[in-house]
Design goal:
This protein is mainly α. The protein contains 3 helices and no strands.
């Protein structure tokens, strides 16, 4: 049961990251209530990813922070699932 809940939460988080990326491409996307809701959910993982992106990839013309956040979310999900598998 706990494994299923963790999987659902992390899949929702990853989908929210993808939705945030899509909304960033829409001209009025960042001004919408959907953006605010999605950003409030993804901020705990996106803000550190943005800092990592600024430090490591500041010279690139594209923002890699969503990819970094998605990768971190996948790693944390795997760690939590392994811990739950041990218990």
């Amino acid at each position: 049961m706990a494994v299923r809940i963790v999987n659902i939460l992390f899949e929702v988080l990853k989908m929210a990251i993808l939705l945030e990326v899509i909304l960033s491409w829409v001209p009025s996307g960042r001004d919408s209530k959907v953006w605010s809701t999605v950003r409030s959910f993804t901020a705990p993982i996106m803000e550190p990813s943005e800092k990592i992106n600024d430090k490591l990839f500041s010279n690139l013309p594209i923002d890699l922070s969503p990819i970094i956040a998605y990768f971190i979310a996948s790693i944390v999900q795997s760690i939590i699932l392994k811990i739950l598998g041990i218990i």
